[in-house]
Design brief:
- The chain has 337 residues and is an alpha/beta fold.
- The protein folds into two domains: 199 residues, NAD(P)-binding Rossmann-like Domain (Rossmann fold, 3-Layer(aba) Sandwich); 102 residues, UDP-galactose 4-epimerase, domain 1.
- The chain is built from ten helices and 13 strands.
- Strands 3-2-1-4-5-6-11 form a seven-stranded parallel beta sheet, sandwiched between helices. A two-stranded parallel ribbon has the order 7-10.
- Strand 1, helix 1 and strand 2 form a beta-alpha-beta unit.
- 49% of the residues are buried.
- Bound molecules: nicotinamide-adenine-dinucleotide.
- Nicotinamide-adenine-dinucleotide binds next to helix 1, helix 4 and strand 5.
Length: 337
Amino acid sequence: MTMSSARRRRVVVTGAGGFIGHHLVSRLKRQGAWVRGVDLKYPEYAPSDADEFLIRDLRRWEACLEATARVDDVYALAADMGGMGFISNHHAEILRNNLLISTHTLDAARQNAVGRYLYTSSACVYPEYLQTNTDVEPLKEEDAYPAQPQDAYGWEKLITERLCLHYGDDYGMDIRIVRFHNIFGPLGTWDGGREKAPAALCRKVAVAKLTETNEIEIWGDGEQTRSFCYIDDCVAGLERVMASPYRDPLNLGQDRLISINTLADLVAQAAGMVVTKRHVPGPQGVRGRNSNNDRLRQVLGWQPQVSLEEGIARTYRWIEARVAESLGLREVEHAVA
Ligand code: NAD
């Protein structure tokens, strides 16, 4: 049953000023829900479609009580996060802030007796010892244990997964947990230090193209591998996971493994150019990581649909327009083409 044919659900999206939260709000609105967004800030690149948008600091318990009041569903996305450059250099800040946000949001939702609660975890929960090769085995959900996440960011995600599961067992909360694998797309952070690899590569290629330098920097040897999932698939998957009765952690991502060097070539192709790569020292994260989607297909009867080429082409167009604007080369609309 689609949401529009059901009673109009009241939903809160925390982190609605961020990349995934902003897209999720738009999707839930299109599906007919009443949506409250909550964040420290409004979305940076386009106005939110939310019916109500609260600017609140969700590290604070009272703010979480207000955020989760009178709603059926909670999509808990708020987190202090960024790409490898940020995650590998802010362990204490990330662990403190995210533990406070996650614990207070979950407990406030319990106090408010919300219907369903979806927590957005990460592929960063998987142990470092399974991710030492570029040609890595795709990670199954049960591979998270014995635990050894690389960074504080991943430890917090894993602990909050456990907290959600215990709240389900001990207090009867209706919990969902997804582990995202590198989500990318337009309207995401593309500069300033928190951007992730696809956005950073799009920006570097756009700068190389628009300034006619044709050279980009890559952190490390560029042979580190990942899988990347387009934003439309991510928010479609989130809604499906919420509608499913499945309670245990579920990977949500693509399972096509690609090196950062090849990803850079795909971005350059989208820009209609060939780039020279200069390899420089920089944080690279684990050596290789891929998603095993067997359980996703089994539980949802669905898997991400948008090809990497198509997703990169759409993302590149949006970021090139931002770069052109920042270089003073043209006035552009922020809308997604
Ligand atoms: P994002 O940084 O764009 O969005 C997170 C939002 O949370 C931001 O708008 C931020 O302002 C908000 N926030 C931070 N601290 C807050 C606070 N104290 N109170 C209220 N709001 C606060 O990140 P995103 O890419 O949209 O990620 C959304 C969720 O998905 C996060 O939980 C993230 O850890 C998880 N995730 C994302 C990816 C990815 O590839 N983007 C991968 C794995 C997991």
